[in-house]
């Protein structure tokens, strides 16, 4: 999988299936199931490290898991999260963090937020590392956002997401990712976007979908977000569950906006 192929999928309306992945064993299995993109998400803080948020995850954690995933993958495009406090102080610091993730095996890095991140995205992209910009609900800043809240519901919020998306793409972002935004807003932006748009809790109208692996395999304990579906239901193997996810994303039958959307 390559960036031009992902851009072609976005342009032709072929859906992109993405999942988080943190180790070589799952990377091989997700590859076999036909997942297009693997995200070494800083959600590993929650699902692997048992932490309450992604903020304590550090660059060394991300480098370790990126190395593991890259060893197991043959086909999928590998995206790694820039963790909290690894890109905030300066563009130079952000470049160093992004370059370390690329050396560990990432094809692309992801960072959270718009506005202040625009010049950082420009700096990293111009120097040759593709960047995915994560907008809407941004888990690294959950405290400032006042909790797990849908973003862009009101006119001002929606206008801000649209403006920041455009600025980020103009600055060189090769992909956008929206978390917990209204389905209508994500679909409208996707239709006009020159780059692929991945959604999580952002409706069926994006170029593709991502879920946290442990959520869709129903390993995560307790209450799960509305946008999660248990793909192990009715399956007798993990490979079967992941294939069911890929099939539903590709067919446009997951998510169902009325069930999983906002
Ligand atoms: O860290 C992560 O898993 C993510 C997804 C929620 C998109 O950023």
Indicate the topology:
Layout: H1 3-12, E1 16-20, H2 24-33, E2 37-40, H3 44-47, H4 59-72, E3 77-81, H5 91-104, E4 108-112, H6 118-126, E5 131-136, H7 155-170, E6 175-179, H8 183-192, E7 197-200, E8 208-211, H9 213-216, H10 238-251, H11 257-260
Parallel strand pairs: 1-2, 1-8, 2-3, 3-4, 4-5, 5-6, 6-7, 7-8
Helix pairs in contact: 2-4, 2-10, 4-5, 5-6
3-methyl-2-oxobutanoic acid (KIV) binds near residues 179 and 212.
Q: Indicate the radius of gyration in whole angstroms.
A: 17 Å
Tell me, rounded to a whole number, the average pLDDT. Answer: 97
- Strand arrangement within the widest β-sheet reads 1-2-3-4-5-6-7-8
Second rung of CATH, namely the architecture: Alpha-Beta Barrel
Structural class: alpha/beta
Q: Might you state the CATH topology name?
A: TIM Barrel
Q: How does the overall form come out from the CA principal axes?
A: globular
What's the SSE pattern? HEHEHHEHEHEHEHEEHHH
Going by CATH, what is the homologous superfamily? Phosphoenolpyruvate-binding domains
Strand content: 5-15%
Using the coordinates above, name the CATH class: Alpha Beta
Number of strand elements:
8
Bound molecules: 3-methyl-2-oxobutanoic acid
Low-confidence stretches: none
Number of helices: 11
Q: How does the major sheet shape up?
A: 8 strands, parallel, barrel
Subcellular location: Cytoplasm
Function: Catalyzes the reversible reaction in which hydroxymethyl group from 5,10-methylenetetrahydrofolate is transferred onto alpha-ketoisovalerate to form ketopantoate.
Subunit structure: Homodecamer; pentamer of dimers.
Family: Belongs to the PanB family.
